[in-house]
Amino acid sequence: MDPVLDRVHLPQGQAPAIDATAFKTVLGRFCSGVTVITALAEGEPVGFACQSFASLSIAPPLVSFFPARTSSTWPRIRAAGRFCVNILADDQAEVCRQLGRPGVDKFAGVKWTASENGSPLLTGAMASIDCELHDEVDGGDHTIVIGRVTCLNEHSEAKPLLFYRAAFGRLEHQ
Questions:
Q1: pLDDT at 12
Q2: Which of 131, 159, 153, 135 is nearest to 145 (CA)?
Q3: Residues 5-63: pLDDT tens digits?
């Protein structure tokens, strides 16, 4: 029998051992867009870079993203109860890097205005999606966050910032 099929059909409750490096390498082959999740927490802008974002449902309108359990920013956004998903354009790699760094003033020099729900809408973002926190689900070393979409807008026809094999990339054809 094929050894791959043997691993797929293990008895319930038994998972195959997966090497973390192999896991990251293989899943790094999946290209994703890049977002920044933002909110106002006690009047202060907070946010984090996030490439694990997806649409979830049209009816009701839901999106999802997956912050690490170690995130110090997600609890502040959770407490705000609402947030903005900023879809980054291909010229915003440095904004993404800045908002992805821990322990610094992430918004120093970052231009933004208030979105419809009052969350930071990053200047130059291709699109924005305002949400209210709908639900959270355990996702291992991450949390699966579900947001109910309350407003969404396209801001430009720019090309998206992409993430592939642990690096930023650009769409060549559109």
A1: 67
A2: 135
A3: 344 455 666 667 888 888 788 877 667 789 999 999 999 999 999 989 999 999 999 99
Checking phi first, is residue 172 left (phi over 0); if not, alpha (psi -120 to 50) or beta? alpha
pLDDT of 1 > 70? The answer is no
